[in-house]
Amino acid sequence: MASAGYPEKLDGNVHETERKDTPPPSSIQKPRHFWEKLGFYNLAVLILGTAAVALALAFLCFLWGAATQARHGGPFPELWFKIAEAGWMKQTVTVSSVVIRVATAAQLGVFAAILAALILERVGVPTEDLPKMSMIRCLNSGPHSLALSIMNSFFSGALVPYAMLVFLAILDAFAMQFTSTILLVDFANTNVVRLQEPTPILFGITSNADLGKSANPYGGNDYWKSAPLNYPRFAEYKEAGSTGANWVDTGKTYRGFLPFREAAERDALRNYTGPMMVVDTRVVCVKPTISNISVDLSSDFPTFETNGTDAELGYSRTKGVYDTNDVRKALGATGQTLTPAERGLFQLHTVSNWTAQSTGVVYNKTGLDFLMDSIQKINYMNEEDALNVGDTTFFVEYCPPDWSMHRTHATILQEILHATGNPALVVQSLFTILLQMAYYDFLPEYDLTATANYYSEVQVNVPVQWTAFAGVLAMLFIHFALLTIAVVLFLTRTEMSLLGNSWQAVSQVMSTDTANVVQHGATASDKEVKRSMKDSGIVEGKIRITKSVHSGRTEATAVRQRHGAMYSTPAGHV
Q1: CA distance linking residue 345 with residue 269, whole number of Å
Q2: Is the dihedral of CA 90, 94, 95, 97 positive or negative?
């Protein structure tokens, strides 16, 4: 008897209660729309996944296409350059690849569910694989989950086409995992040309009439006796020269010095519009008329001969000479007619008025007075002292230091004279070199500015080919081809599968053909169930989902003979 205030303890045995059986629902299969067959989740995966892949692919096309434009000197979007300049190109490719991988992986889950439904309804599977194959229709686990089940009956003729689809999908899915790595194969460092923001450029030194401020051209380096660190590129406008019996003319030649002190800035420059120091370097040499002159060929000084072997400018210890070819080519003093581009120079475009001032600052009339003064080295000869000649009279290499220019100047000028026989080119080249040296020496002191627009080259790490990109496109083509084939087959050749519905997946496994196995499987492992089926011979059977001819119910039905029992339901066909 139960004590007061507490319920009586119930008997631990559970007894079946008497109740009336609920009549089963009607087995009439009503028509289903395609979205009902696929399921809203699967339909969303297919649509949204395709959209995500399309967006990621469009962005990758943008990166690759803009890189191609930039490498060929064409215009490119500012967004693309900001990504490239910041070094984010690889990161954006990686993010896009992740989007593609996630979307395609989700879609392959739908692909697996579709293939499972097709195989169950059209072909059938071994009894031992029935539960897993049925559940795949609602689990979206991917094509790899079908592999083992298919391998058990791979050589079944009706299953081969589906098996090929599954294994092709597995290989494609595996390759898609390396999308990012594959795409980065197309990357390399390259140079692109970009318009810089309008920039104030220093181009001259103020000569203020009130304050008398100006550069001191007489203090500092002696450009005649010094060698330049390099021979900077310049811009040139040139008209054809002429030659007569007693004269030679270089023609009108304007040379503009680039207002960038660093060699790297000049090397990166591709186009420049703005203030620039322009020098008229035209030289005309006329043969003088000389009479009543005698020359004493004896010399109080020893002379030396050189072999003239060419080497790169910069002293060659093995040959003991300079190679002036590159310098002479830039100066247009090789004896060949070359364009500025062929000489590695900029083309200086002519203007209507070369002396027009574009700023309101008072400055030297030509802007070159202090530069010209800086290279003046004239000591007028004293009639009483024949040895007191101009400091730079001698252009030979072995004159005393006080009487000669730097040996690199002398070497270049000698090579020009030997190659062209044109003294006007010699003088023109000399003054170009000296003026350049003075210009870049004074450049830090410039205080006149004006706005310039210029294009410069920037090195970026971007796609330089389409090879890997084409490979990824091929993988995506295979992916969507497989997906399309699967969806079309599912919508046209299945009737009893509603993807994503777990109750249906479980219910359709239950039938008179599977009752014993299902009952035994309630308390056994898969391994134990398979052993039991092998012992009873059931493992030799094949099951597919179809409408039972006996009960009219959609369920798992045996489709071939097992131990002498013949089932009337025909096997499906592909």
Answers
A1: 11
A2: positive
